[in-house]
């Protein structure tokens, strides 16, 4: 039988477990037969109604937390687009044939998002396993010690859920601090205006794996030249932001006195060797000479810059690639290469969050980048940066942070 011949609506209704579908407004869109049977509800009593109008908390129990816990889990799934497995819950249910009478029930819920083509959550799968009878049966046959252990297990489950919620809140606060620190240490856009450049930083969505990416533009000491660089620190949160700040500042300083980008990265690599957390950090730097119309570049394990020529041809600057900053024990000079450009060309540096996707070859991401640059070659740097981010970053947000620098030459 082909996939087109499968009646998924019939499959859903006959699933052996309790499964319901909720809209993002927490309104019942559907429920399978097992859900209706175990909940003791008719389809017309549920479909189209708000979840907590159908199943409110027991008003006779001032300690009831089932509704609040379930709502928190569902809202978290909506916000993150990730599944959430809840701890064992006591959630009493009003008997449908005896209004005002509530039955003590125990549940083990899992909430899973269904994503639409744009990456947004369009439905919530609410799967529930009822364990009330199991608990009652064990209480019936068990001795006092068994009952004490079960009560302790339930209490511990509630404590675990509270601890997980506090951890989520702590991680969210750390992420906010790390992003703020990251943005404070990166050059402000107003400092770059005379370079005809645009810069962008996009933190990873709903993740602590942020704040390791950086960018920089500096005026070089001699001639009509600038240095452009981006880098990526392996790690996350405040630690990565601090390491990033040290490496960015060091490269910014050494670029002003180095003979070329290879020497600058060589010095930075030796500096990275003594910084905890700089292991496997990558960077690429390019020296742009406007008088000679050349770009001299060197890369330490980083994705290649892209040079967008006025006619639309995109050249990947990949002829001077070396291992990451702290991966070379010997003092040999790092490689560098030179390429020419015409007036109106555009130099683009970025971090791997822009092009890399799980289970996808990096060449696919590079091809996607070159197509986007060629298609939008007539745009100014600000609009070009926005167009590239719009086309290349996933609609639901990237799992890695992204830095992007666009310089019109």
Write up what this structure looks like.
The model has no long low-confidence stretch (mean pLDDT about 80). Strands 1, 2, 3, 4, 7 and 8 form a six-stranded antiparallel sheet that branches. Strands 10, 11, 12, 13, 16 and 17 form a six-stranded mixed sheet that branches. Strands 9-19-18-14-15 form a five-stranded antiparallel sheet, with helices on one face. It has about 400 residues and is of the alpha+beta class. The longest helix is centred in the middle third of the chain and has 42 residues, at about 145-185. The relative contact order is 0.09. It is elongated. Helices cover about 35% and strands about 25% of the residues.
Outline of this structure?
The chain is α+β, with helices and mostly antiparallel strands. 35% of the residues lie in helices and 24% in strands. β10 and β11 (225-232) form a beta hairpin.
